[in-house]
Design brief:
10 strands; two-stranded antiparallel sheet; transferase; rRNA processing; RNA-binding; Ribosomal RNA large subunit methyltransferase J; Rossmann fold; alpha/beta
Length: 282
């Protein structure tokens, strides 16, 4: 049963971490002219009005995108953050106000060129209805179905380059191992793909299954970064941090992201930390 709805969490610190990483990867890929297929295996709604009932309930964006938006003038000195915040400004409807937060379909579509393609998978019919109402370019397809199966069925793609975002809700414990298997299988069919995978940091530590699964399958060139709001507390159940792994991270992006994250981490609270490492080297 699907019960997760991203609207309850839109714009939180994990979204900032995920979408800034995605933005940096896209920015790098666009330095070359050859066409790209983008696949978003777990798309969600696309755009989230912060005034929506679900988002107002937890207001997680207050410890996520909101402090960055407030500090945007100071952050403009940092080139990646400046570009990200300018893009974020484009979805706002009232001048100078933060009233919407864009999800991955928007971040992927906003710099799509006519020669590129974007495939968005969403399994939840209600979330797909929201996504269907978003205005997106003609070379975007919204597909109702399982994103991991859909990804594997579409490989290899006909464009020279491929970039995939895997962003599940991890509602089932088995999803960590399933994602590891799907990413490994996909990379066998598309060795040069840049593949981004988001994972939650929870006290139970199940994300280790995902990371170790990929390493044990023999996948190489895996970089990962983790943004934590606090140290894990074993008797608590909530998410304390956000993880991103990128297979085939383009050269130099680790340093670019570290510089941007160093600026924003202190804005997320006194106990917030950021770290990155090559989980498996080339
Ligand atoms: N990627 C989105 C973003 O960054 O804005 C957020 C995605 S949210 C974390 C996960 C989404 O995956 C939910 O909308 C959920 O309905 C959907 N979902 C769950 N299982 C799925 C599956 N097997 N295939 C495709 N979508 C799925």
């Amino acid at each position: 049963m699907l019960s997760y709805q991203h609207a309850y969490h839109a714009g939180n610190f994990a979204d900032v971490h995920k979408h800034l990483t995605l933005f940096a990867v896209i920015d790098h890929l666009l330095r070359k002219s050859s066409p790209i297929t983008y696949i978003d295996t777990h798309a969600g709604r696309g755009i989230y009005p912060l005034a929506a009932e679900e988002t107002r309930k937890l207001q997680e964006y207050r410890q996520g995108v909101a402090p960055l938006w407030q500090a945007r003038q100071a952050l403009a000195e940092e080139p990646l953050l400046h570009a990200w915040l300018v893009s974020l400004g484009r979805v706002q409807q009232r001048d100078g106000e933060l009233d919407h937060y864009p999800g991955s379909p928007w971040w992927l579509a906003q710099r799509l060129r006519p020669e590129d393609r974007l495939r968005l998978f969403e399994l939840h019919p209600g979330e797909l209805d929201h996504l269907a109402r978003q205005h997106l370019p003609d070379n975007v397809r919204r597909i109702h179905g399982d994103g991991l199966q859909g990804l594997l069925q579409r490989l290899p793609v006909s464009t020279p380059r491929l970039c995939v975002l895997v962003d599940p809700s991890f509602e089932r414990k088995s999803e960590y191992a399933e994602v590891a298997k799907a990413v490994w299988s996909a990379m066998r069919k598309a060795r040069h793909a840049v593949m981004l995978v988001w994972y939650p940091l929870l006290p139970a530590g199940r994300h280790r299954e995902l990371l170790e699964g990929l390493r044990d399958h023999g996948l190489r060139k895996i970089w990962c970064s983790e943004l934590s709001l606090r140290e894990p507390v074993t008797d608590e159940r909530g998410m304390y941090g956000s993880g991103m792994l990128v297979v085939n991270l383009p050269w130099g992006l680790d340093e670019r992201l570290a510089a941007a994250m160093a600026r924003i981490t202190p804005l997320l609270g006194d106990t917030a930390t950021y770290r990155d490492e090559w989980w498996v080297a080339e």
